[in-house]
Amino acid sequence: MTNTQQPDGLISLAEASRKTGKILTRGAFSELDTGAAPTLTDLTEALHFALGDGRIWLNDQRMVLIQSLVLGRLRQEIIDAFGTETAKGLFMRVGYMQGVRDAELIQKRFPQEDLTHALAAGPRVHTLEGFVKVTTKQFQFDLKKGTYFGEFYWDDSSEAAEHISSYGISSEPVCWMQTGYPSGYTSTLFGRPVIFREIECAAMGAPRCFVVGQHVDAWGKDAPERHYLGLDWKSGRYVAVDRPKPAPAAKPSGGSAQDAAEGQVVGVSASFLRTRLMLEKVADTDATVLFMGESGVGKELFSNELHKLNPRAQGPFVPINCAAIPENLVESELFGVEKGAFTGATQSRAGYFERAHGGTLFLDEIASLTYSAQGKVLRAIQERKIERVGGAKTIPVDVRVVAASNVDLTDEVRSGRFRQDLYFRLCVFPIVIPPLRDRRDDIPLLAAHFLKLFRERHRRDVAGFTRRAMDALLAYGFPGNIRELQNLVERGVIYAESGSLIDMQHMFTGFEKVPSLSLKLTGEGRIGAAPQDGTDLTDERRMITAPEALKRAEAELYRSALEAAGGNVSAAARQLGLTRAKLEYRLRRMGLLT
Q: Which of 451, 437, 475, 463 is nearest to 48 (CA)?
């Protein structure tokens, strides 16, 4: 299907050829990799290994390496246990979800690219992830009419190979997960359902697999993919059907940075999920909760989330930092004061306990209270009654008390600085919030969340993070925890130029001790970042001041690029992803060009 005259918005290989200045014929679409972004090299930049940390990242998504043989065994177990039809639907839906996530990755990392190049990136991502080598025969679409048609060849399908290994030659196509992948990917980018179907399969004895993708209407109402993917026919078009699920317990936000708003807890790491599970367990009770963790881990955010999940959510949430209250005003601030109780008390005023009536009172840094104030707090919690300073009557208060401490209260009890009876009254349900260095899986997600937040707040069009910047964030110790990460990202948004990526020097400005990353230009023209001396990124012996290291590394990077390009400034600029004028200016500034 290579029409010479096509409707507005329709794109095929011929049009892609004109856009890229390359002749794209059958089997030659991979030439886009050296032209239009995102190329396979661009996508590879999103993939990095946190050596010694047990994590692999594709942009902000954590990946896992698993042997194709193991995946094949899992597939065999499911087929044998549940039958072919159930397994087909399950794997197709898993592939669909994988395609959706990769499409979101492309939209996030390359937001300026048009739909043509975003759709063309799908085969490259699928190839990058090792499932199959994809060659585009052709694809065309009309966004206004909602039509799509594409044909693709698959070589070396891992799914087909594992099926043959387990069951021999098949009588029908078996690349179920790989078929679900482009359906999810293309549907997400196109904004309308697109279904891919395997026409020829290597598992059936064909030399390679051949798949066709069409907008869902073109397949007809009885397309089996409708059942496998959970699509239903309504009002003349396909819409996704919600599969029945058990009603989920109310829980704090986590997972997607796009869904997270300011003031919500965000995370996907195992330690974060454990903390969130404990939060859910106690959320709908009135039990006293004690949050423990270092400064900056988000104790107030967790306590606020606890309040939102409680039946008291319609009542007030009153946070107070006990360390900020002057010692001689603790009692009046917590319990209120009657008019004339002391000099300057010109009117009666409610304290924090009264203001939180019917809601939640959050006592942060409770270890900073004086010993006498601790006794009065204990009495208020036990009796649910208070007396204002200078008052003669008791006032009942219906308050859920949540406390937090950044020091070990058991040590404070042993040293005699904290009342043991108050400790046991507060420690009904203790929750330890892990420091950021123990939940590194959350760093890309949190960074993306803060990037979105500060991009909108400061009206800056910053595209994202360089690979080097993300490597530095993953390697950094974060003594200030999430609060420090938030500051680094906000600083990066302010420093970086509009439309560019946040790099390491935009965030680390000299006050932080950051890992030294040696930079070099690889044979493919990519910028690589690696720890010096082959030691682990977290090795404290390698901590140096950022600006000095960056200046030396930048000069070495430009020098290497020039040498690789034979002294050709334009060629070096292309390798570095810079304009010739910008590179020339930097070279002259550093004295590398006269």
A: 475
